[in-house]
Design brief:
The protein is α+β, with helices and mostly antiparallel strands. 30% of the residues lie in helices and 33% in strands. Strands 1, 3, 4, 7 and 8 form a five-stranded antiparallel β-sheet that branches. The protein starts with a helix and ends in a 9-residue tail after the last helix.
Length: 174
C-alpha cells in the first residue's frame, strides 16, 4: 500500500513538473516602441507597442487598448489599431488633466491586461503671447510703402521745381 502511495506521489509530481512550464508560457508581454520623457496634460501622444506571446512571438489580438485610471477612479480608454508588423499596434493617448494615473494594456480576451508603472502627467504650460501678437496686428506692406513712395515723389518734384527757378540745369534721369 505504501508503495502505491509512493508511486502516486511520484506520478503527481512528474505531472506537476510538466504542467508548470506549460502554464508559465501562457502569458503575453507588451513592450512600447518608445515613451516620451514626460507626459503633459492635454497633449496627444501616438504610442506604438507590440504584444508578444511569452515575450517572444508577435501576437495579433482581436482588441487591445491602453486604459488609464486617475487616482479619482475615472477611466480613460485609448483603442489600439493594428499598425505594420504582426502584433504591433498604435494608440493615441491624451491625458485630460495633470496628476498620477495607473495604466495598463489589454492584450485581447485570452490574456490578462499588462499592468504598467504609474505615470505622472504634468500640467500644461500657460500659453505665452507671441511677440507678433504682442506687437499688434501685422502691418500691411502696401500701407507702409505707399506713403513713403508719395513722400519720395513729392521730394523729387520739389527738387525739380527749385532747380528750375534758380536757373540751374535740371538733374538728368536715365
Amino acid at each position: 500500500m505504501a508503495r502505491r502511495a509512493s508511486i502516486a506521489v511520484v506520478a503527481a509530481l512528474a505531472l506537476l513538473a510538466f504542467a508548470l512550464p506549460a502554464a508559465a508560457k501562457e502569458r503575453a508581454i507588451t513592450t512600447f516602441d518608445s515613451l516620451p520623457g514626460q507626459f503633459v496634460a492635454g497633449t496627444s501622444y501616438s504610442l506604438g507597442y507590440t504584444i508578444r506571446m511569452d515575450g517572444v512571438e508577435p501576437l495579433n489580438v482581436e482588441r487591445t487598448e491602453i486604459v488609464a485610471r486617475s487616482l479619482g477612479g475615472t477611466a480613460y480608454n485609448f483603442v489600439g489599431t493594428p499598425d505594420g508588423a504582426p502584433g504591433h499596434y498604435v494608440a493615441t493617448v491624451t491625458f485630460p488633466e495633470a496628476g498620477t494615473y495607473q495604466w495598463s494594456v489589454t492584450q485581447g480576451s485570452f490574456f490578462a491586461p499588462m499592468q504598467l508603472p504609474a505615470v505622472s502627467v504634468q500640467a500644461a504650460a500657460p500659453v505665452a503671447a507671441s511677440s507678433a501678437a504682442a506687437a499688434g496686428p501685422a502691418a500691411d506692406p502696401l500701407k507702409t510703402a505707399l506713403p513713403l513712395a508719395l513722400a519720395a515723389a513729392a521730394a523729387l518734384i520739389a527738387l525739380r521745381l527749385m532747380t528750375r527757378r534758380r536757373g540751374l540745369p535740371a538733374p538728368r534721369t536715365a
